[in-house]
Amino acid sequence: MKRxxxxxxxxxxxxxxxxxxxxxxxxxERYKAAKSSISEDLVIIKRxxxxxxxxxxxxxxxxxxxxxxxxxxxxxxSQEIASEIAALMGESNRIxxxxxxxxxxxxxxxxxxxxxxxxIAHEYVGKQIDAIMTIATKGIPxxxxxxxxxxxxFVIVRRDPKxxxxxxxNVNYMSGSSSKVENMTLSKRSLxxxxxxxxxxxxxxxxxxxxxxxxxxxxxxxxxxxVAVFAEGPFKGERLISDYKSILKxxxxxxxxxxxxxxxxxxxxxxx
Length: 272
Ligand SMILES: O=P(O)(O)OC[C@H]1C[C@H](OP(=O)(O)OP(=O)(O)O)[C@H](O)[C@@H]1O
Hints:
This protein has 8 helices and 12 strands. It has 272 residues and is an alpha/beta fold. Residues 135-139, 175-177, 201-209 line the site of ligand PCP.
């Protein structure tokens, strides 16, 4: 196989195996090429991936060494994407009763989900994450997007127990939006003690749902790697959570004027 042909397949392999350690011998065998040629290929791929902000290619020496590709986007690219989606969200026909806005078209678009997944994953590059947690229903596509980029499983918390979940662990939580006690449940098979869990959801108002998921992480004897939401909505009361990252922030919704004021979330507005 010529170097140019090898580079195409090599690049494709890395893109399709994010965050997976693959040995140089595997590539040497695959391409019937010397490890020195494989290493030279990697220098080229690494440089181009860096220059075009596709992600990072790390090589690790030693017996258990190899190469790992981690998809990534730059801060600049992340902010550009967030601004594009913010413009979409400002459309007045999205206003729903109760201070929510219609997001399903945005969160139903595979391209947007891939971008949202990359933005959230970008905030946790270099951090150990073993699982993504979200709550049914609208958080699920976001969790799936982040989990496929980080190549870790995602677990779905429910508000109503299902027999198909087997034994479950439940917690009560204060829902800030409705200021009443609610319950959420997760199959006991979902997480193992000590796992580092990233919580994601589509939307936050009072923060009670996120807080409930934080207490679930604790009940499973797991560690909280972080909390990220696609958008935080306007909320007048005392928020039940403060340590979260948001991509977008809805500052105000004026039903009469049918206007939504959307700005960039704290990922972009708070000190890194
Ligand atoms: O910050 P809080 O005040 O707790 O509210 C945020 C909740 C409410 C809403 O879910 P729902 O629309 O109730 O449920 P689903 O996602 O199934 O549509 C949203 O997806 C978050 O999960």
